[in-house]
Request: fold
Amino acid sequence: MISLLHTADWQIGRVFSQFEPDDASALFEARFKVVERLAAIATERKVDAVLVAGDVFDLQTVSDKTIRRMFNAMQGFTGPWLLIPGNHDSALSESVWSRAQRLGAVAPNVVCCLEPSPHTVAGKFTLLPAPLTQRHTYGDLTEWFAAAELEDESLPRVGLAHGSVQGILSEDIDSTNPIAAGRAVQAGLDYLALGDWHGTRQIDERTWYAGTPETDRFRANDSGQALLVRIDGRGALPAVEPVRTGQFDWQQWEPRLAVPSDIDELVRKLEQIGSGDVLLLRAQGSCDLAGHNRLNAALDAARARARALVWEGEALRLEPTEDDIQALHADGFVGEALQALREQQGGADAELARNALLTLARILGTQPGAAA
Reply:
């Protein structure tokens, strides 16, 4: 029996520019920490090898320090690490991989598979890697698996590739780096470990995407995991167990607000946000000024607790009630201006009108005699 830990798409060095600097820094650091967790899991579970199915690095141009830190993070597991380049870190003639070798950062137990040739690993299984040597390929780099000449035909065969299984994933994913559906069976593989899709996904009984071990986008695709794979012997079906590895929980909420109880529910949910959450909140619909003020206070409190919170309220229309206007003592010309801005939210300058309405309400709310 062999035991493997399958992971992929570490995207080391990714810069999260859509977030505030302190949040972006924490998310950057999380990608090193998850490699340390993978090493700890591999040691605890006594696996025979760790398979990393491409996109280890997010860019060819990551710093030398980032390269060294990544390989240092792997030191907690002293067994074999088997890595292939993906589309983000393809094995060009001059690449992040060649720099890593020059830096002396690659430990003896780490095998960077930069060429498509079989590797017998610890006498226990044969690895068939399909490294990307350029960012985009239009031929199937796993096609050679079936005809490969192996040292020991009796050992389990494990494929390692980075790309898109044709006819399974969406068309925008399928455009480059294709992998034929049914490749594992056609090539006589016991397991095909894939990278590129950032969520855990089973393709067939012998083929899996591990997904990124630390979630990096607002998409509900079962990410933040690695796969423990056990194969009893040549020809046996693999037993695959997802293992949680991610530190942060990325969530995307798109509530439609219409009545005060909708605000109540959203405020209640925001009160549950904690330090492990990365939240994109995109609200739409309408609310009055009192509801908006409550929501704004809840957002401020949640921002202080969350790892990161992105608020998009451009589609949320403000509808001041008569009570709102009276509370602001907005009569005469000012009241007319508020009403005009409210109506303009339905036009071409909706966001500008909404911001002006908020600004005017904020100014009026701070005047002597305004409602507390």
